[in-house]
Amino acid sequence: MSASWWDSTQRKFWTLSKQELSEALKKLEYDDRQLVQQYPLPEKRLLNIFFSTQIQKLGRRVTVRQQALATAQVYLKRYYTRVEIRQTNPYLVLATAFYLACKMEECPQHIRLIVAEGRQTWPDLFHADISALGETEFHLISTLNAQLILHHPYRSLLDLTTSTQNPNAQSHANPHNTNNTPSSSQNNPQSNPSAAAPTPFPLTPEETSLAWSTINDHYLTDLPLLHAPHVIAITAVFLAVALKPSSTTSQNYGSGGAAGGQAHAAAMQGALINAGMGRGGGGGGGGYFSNAGGLTPGGGSAAGAGATAPGPQSRLAKLVTWLAESSIAVDEVVECVQELVSLWEVWERFNEKVCKEQIARFVKGRGLDGV
User: Under the GO molecular function aspect, what terms does this record hold (predicted)?
Assistant: First the structure.
């Protein structure tokens, strides 16, 4: 087991570029193009939402920690980068990923319990017995090359926002980055033990709750396969500070509710513009933060964009300055923000019944429900 994300199998083998991920998925569809044409499925983000809701349903029945649910979702994503979904019974794979994740997160559940709860949760499509789940577990571990240790953003969030640093906390700056340039999660240089973690940016209880919910939401996207956990944590901090919904909308923000998704997306786009982090921004730190006090690119004033900044420097401006002084690759944070905004927009048209019907069609049509 690697105590550091920088030396982990997660970074070395399971942190992909967008192009690598796209090519892997396209290859799977091309190899099984007849099945793809015969059994169309909803777009991937809608499937991600559906699978997340199903894992949560199983988790509520068994009662396990949130991190085990997150680990199960990542296992599922990794598995389906190597196996075409229409070749499997997703409910069996989902239950197996959940069973394995509980083991890895040290909250093991008996295999009989998982099988029994799976049959109760999906009575029409999950008829597996203990041996079938055991065989699927072996295949899942083999497909993932037994690379099962995960580093989640939850710990990074605590390290980045807690004023008293955990003495065992890992550095979120790339220890291989010996200069002061933004680090990328794809770098692979030699180790430099002298690197230090950035100064913590304390959050209010409300902001902490929103950041935690944002991390939960990111598992519904491909971001766990694309970015380092500390980049996700930074993104969650930015969103929590940039978006402070009212008591009415906060009930839906980051919790999976479709209501208010478009409003949050619009607010997030406004925050991006005001922070000088719009889609037209550059990838380095300088372009985003040349005017940290005013929060708009090119020396513009945030107030002119309709923002309100109490005091000489708003809290969002302080966050932007904090990011500018860190070694985080800001273009990666921007990419994560935009992906989450897109997720919340897509959530508006998520229909669990439609997803379930389309999955049931190929599971029953190919006789996979009896597996």
Answer: cyclin-dependent protein serine/threonine kinase regulator activity
